[in-house]
Amino acid sequence: MSIYLCNAKMEPKRTPIRLTFLGTGTSQGVPVIGCDCAVCCSADARDARLRTSAMVEVGDKRFIIDAGPDFRQQMLREGVSHITAILLSHKHKDHIGGLDDVRALNFVDYPHEIHTVHIYGTHDTCECVRKDFDYAFSANPYRGVPQMQLHEFGTEPFEIEGVEIVPIRGEHSRFEITGFRFGELAYLTDFKTISDEECEKLQGVELLVVNALRFEPHDSHFSVDEALQLIGKVAPQRAYLTHMSHDIGLHCVANLRLPEGVEFAYDGLKVEI
Ligand SMILES: [Zn+2]
Ligand SMILES: [Zn+2]
Ligand SMILES: [Zn+2]
């Protein structure tokens, strides 16, 4: 007993990390408008995929990774009223298109308080947000514009309210993409390639999330095989695939094609480490 207590004392206390998959679909979402394939017509809730986004809760801090066109629906489904920050992986619309809806979070305690939403991205991504939502950043904004404060990060780890976040860089076809590591959890979406140097930053990760568009190769996203290669290299305890298209097939069938410890994520799935 005394040994157990002694060991327990020496072990550093880990803050629990909880991951919620808010959306696991590619840019068009699943079902796809006008498609009558078996996946798009499936009655299995795991085959209905909103645009890719995730919520990472570290203790009482809550981070949203990406805010695509389904952001409003995702916040409503999970009952979210307060967040610590939004982290953006890149500037594609399926990852930033829902930012106007941060207004609801701004005014949740109004009139006593207005919560500015803090948004983190690379210089390139922040420039795009400034351009696309220029009405929110004008010198003389009208009443009711989304209150967003942009923060640019580079290649170095940064901290938000005491939580360290390590940016992981890769290529998404023609431009740079960022994944994020929080302690033993790492989340990568829309990657096509990653250098050995960046891969090193994933060592020791227990739970890894990686994008996998479909089984066939694609120009700007990992296929399932490419995602599995990265997972094999990092060797986490568990891995989930996200950002899937309807081409992946029915969840219940496609999942059987994956090795042990790897699964296709689905909307609403919650995982804790
Ligand atoms: Zn995407
Ligand atoms: Zn379809
Ligand atoms: Zn993209």
Task: Describe, in plain words, how this protein is organized in 3D.
The protein is an alpha/beta fold. The chain is built from eight helices and 14 strands. The protein has helices at 2-10, 71-78, 93-96, 102-106, 123-132, 196-200, 224-234, 251-254; strands at residues 17-23, 53-58, 61-65, 85-87, 117-121, 148-152, 158-160, 163-172, 175-182, 185-187, 207-211, 238-242, 262-264, 270-272. It has a seven-stranded mixed sheet. It has a seven-stranded mixed sheet with strand order 7-8-9-10-11-12-13, with helices on one face. The radius of gyration is 19 Å and the shape is globular. 41% of the residues are buried. The structure holds zinc ion (3 copies). Residues 32, 35, 37, 39-40, 246 line the site of one zinc ion (ZN).
Strand tally is 14
Q: Number of DSSP helices?
A: 8
Percent in strands? 25-35%
Distance between the termini: 26 Å
Helix-strand string: HEEEHEHHEHEEEEEHEHEHEE
Bound molecules: zinc ion
Which word captures the global form? globular
Low-confidence stretches: 1-6
What Rg is obtained from the alpha carbons, in whole angstroms?
19 Å
Q: Specify the biggest β-sheet.
A: 7 strands, mixed
Strand arrangement within the widest β-sheet reads: 6-5-4-3-2-1-14
Percent helix range: 10-25%
Mean pLDDT: 95
Structural class: alpha/beta
Condensed summary:
This protein has helices at residues 2-10, 71-78, 93-96, 102-106, 123-132, 196-200, 224-234, 251-254, and strands at 17-23, 53-58, 61-65, 85-87, 117-121, 148-152, 158-160, 163-172, 175-182, 185-187, 207-211, 238-242, 262-264, 270-272.
